[in-house]
Input
Amino acid sequence: MSAKIIDGKQIAADIRAELTTAVAALKEKGIVPGLGVILVGADPASQSYVTAKERACETIGIYSDDNRLTAETSQEELLALVDRMNNDPKINGILVQLPLPKHIDEAAVLLAIDPDKDVDGFHPMNVGKMMVGEETFLPCTPHGILQMLSRSGVETEGAHVVVIGRSNIVGKPVANMLLQKKKGANATVTLCHTRTKDVGHFARQADIIIAASGWPNTVTADMVKPGAVVVDVGVNRVEDSTRERGYRLVGDVDFDAVKEVASMITPVPGGVGPMTITMLLYNTVESARRANGIK
Ligand code: GUN
Output
């Protein structure tokens, strides 16, 4: 039996339609949500992510302030730009695309962002609030994953979720969010990483697998319990001479084989990716609401 494909594009489109209505309502009150976007350097993947984020802003009526800086930009220059955005009332959210060039201290930059404009949810204050279950900006990819699961009718309460990968952007926060004592969470969570002795041993016990390792074929069919739900966060470029651009995108899951074992699976592309961008829009609209005292 072939798994049901969880259509991230469709779920993202549903949420974006809700956000378009919310933005129109804010505009009636004279409020235009604004996102400040900063990209340092010319990494092609980061360039395409940032362009996609700005296009998405435009489609739902969010104003975006685009700042593409050269790879030689100093930390001081970057911090000065963050400071300008912190103090600009037209900007409700600040997005510094990661990774940053090696000479820039990423932690220092994330710490400089006003926590009230931290729509990525990466500021340590917001990470702490998330961890203790207080309301805050939730990081976009983990939040998108939880939305996908709940909107697809996947029950997380009491489920065993195995997360593969311990990044600050996906693995650690999604594991944390899923173990919160809340609706759409309440799971038993196992977090596997590069020093886990036998990832398959844990993965085979999972009702839900979240693959966020950054390596193709991390999850193979023999690692999946029949009927499990598989969420693939990976975006990996693999050489493909049959494609005009010379590569194709694959996730961290061996999709063709795993879809024959799982009950539901997210594709790459068209799965988690559109959700990440959508939750960034969601946080930006939420920030504009909060800045104007609207519940
Ligand atoms: N790089 C990869 N994912 C993300 C993300 O969600 N936000 C930012 N700022 N950078 C990223």
Residues 95-98, 120, 140-141, 169, 276 surround guanine (CB under 6 Å). The chain has ten helices and eleven strands. The first helix runs from residue 8 to 28. The longest strand covers residues 34-40.
